[in-house]
Design a protein that fits this description.
This protein has 90 residues and is of the alpha+beta class. The protein has one domain: Alpha-Beta Plaits (2-Layer Sandwich), CATH 3.30.70. A four-stranded antiparallel beta sheet has the order 2-3-1-4. β2 and β3 form a beta hairpin.
Length: 90
């Protein structure tokens, strides 16, 4: 299992726009074979922070979905990224 978790800093005043624009990716990921969990959500305290959490059956499943990452529209809103990928051994 692979977990991707962390946070993004979003341009001031654009956090809710970022979360809304991420919805299609969340829907697509959850429909992808190998996706166990996928969420992009607004931090309830910091108005420029978004939290991401993903669980995948394998690195291959994650790589198959991820491709080149977020599109230019979402990338333009991101100020900084603190996200890690973790392999979980059962």
């Amino acid at each position: 299992m692979v977990i991707v978790a962390g946070s993004l800093r979003i341009a001031q005043g654009r956090r809710d726009e970022f979360v809304a624009a991420s919805r299609p990716a969340v829907v697509q990921a959850r429909a992808t074979v190998g996706c166990l969990e996928f969420v992009v959500t607004a931090d309830p305290v910091d108005d420029d922070r978004v939290v991401v959490y993903e669980r995948w059956e394998s690195v291959e499943a994650l790589a198959g979905f991820r491709g080149d990452g977020p599109g230019d529209d979402l990338s333009a809103m991101i100020v900084s990224v603190d996200v890690g990928q973790y392999a979980v051994m059962s």
